[in-house]
Amino acid sequence: MIDNVIVVVLDALRADRVKSDDGRDLTPYLDELASDSVFFSQAYSTTTATDPAVTSLQTGQHPLSHGVRNHGTHVTSEEKAAVEAVESAPEVFSRNGFATSKIGRPLGRWHKRGFDEYPNVSSTHWHRRAFEKRMSKLLYNVHPSIGDTISGVYNKIFESEETDYAEPEEAADEIVETLEGDDRAYSFVHWMDTHTPYSAPKGYVEECLDRYEYGDSRSLEAVASEYPEESITANSLRSGGVVYEGSEPWIETESDPGTGLIDARYDAAVRYSDAKLGALVSELRNRGLYDTTMIVALSDHGESLGEHGIYYEHHGLYECTVRIPLLIHVPGQQPTEVNELVSIMDVLPTMYDYAGIDDAPPTDGQSLRPVIEDGEAVNRTEILAGEANAQRRRAILTDNWKYIRALDDGTCRYCDLQHAAREELYNLEEDPGENRNVVEENPDIATDLSARMENRVEELTQNRSESDDDITYDDEEEMMDRLEALGYR
């Protein structure tokens, strides 16, 4: 019997970092849990930004259905009104007798509906951090050394606050304590370590630099020079920017801030997150909760580490950003690996199915219980994904093909340039890295996928609630400060 459900979101974790075959043992604990779970190797998100992706996870609906397509300050009043009409996971679990808790990153606003326990979103640290970001960026434009000075002073004053990392066991205790004392509990955990600025204790970074090769490292300033001077991306790569942040210990060393160091910091954040997950599983076992707890581990989207000229961001509807790791541990079920297309929208109906909840609102996903228990086929022929926060593009993919189309002139708001042609087509079987756009050689395939895309868009849009309500949230200002401190504009 399933008494507890835990969802662990490792924000911006790339699928290729889990169960990797490139010799980098970055996720030993995730891999161990996968060996006792059902691992989905072809899982996809609906989008590349956290607000709409987590909303898809918590509603089982596509952004075109639940309404939230943008992120942060770009979420419109119409989007807020639409999502307010959709009942989410914590509300449904609470209504069915589950104690509900949120651990880790608070997203606030509509995301906190239905939780009995929710992290405090008000923090002077985030106000101060956002102010420092604005000031250092402004003064950097006056003269780089002035911006560097502001950022450096901030980091020296608040260094202990910024680098006080919790031990993995502490993170595990916080989660498990939410399960004890209640007959049934739903806990939603959101860890941000693998999101920029890629946070991990210094020792984890040094270990990655020692163990792995990060060849062809380029200076961050050289990469920044490839973007327009005032672009969000260029500023994030320079001193005071969210990507550069945390690199100070390696200035004037062999790893002086360059792409190799940032890649190592990302991998270190993966290892740190993995250690926290390992501690969580160990603590569940120690307290006798592992055999009655369903565990879902996944990411909301991936991360670009230079692919297609996109550095340390999650835009572009490529495999590195829309394909996600996903494993589901159901006590008593045989472990296996499923290599069929599944969606982040399938997670919620699966949890409802195992929790015995039969009064949930409809979703755009499907329960994976028949797949997990009986090995049945998923029977999904296509995945529809889209993005609106940095670029306005839409993609549809099948087992073999991915078709991407720009919905406007194709200019990226973050990078102030066009990353690709208006139409893209990739043969994923022959070109898994999506290095060769073959749309001109395959017009019939592109036309077919474009038509299928439009049909699916029409189906999903019909499900969206429309309202003229003016929705406001008490925690909106605090959430925007947090997002700005993470580099969002």
UniProtKB/TrEMBL annotation:
Residues 457-476 are annotated as: Disordered. It comes from the Archaea. Residues 4-357 form the Sulfatase N-terminal domain. Residues 467-476 have a biased composition (Acidic residues). This is Sulfatase.
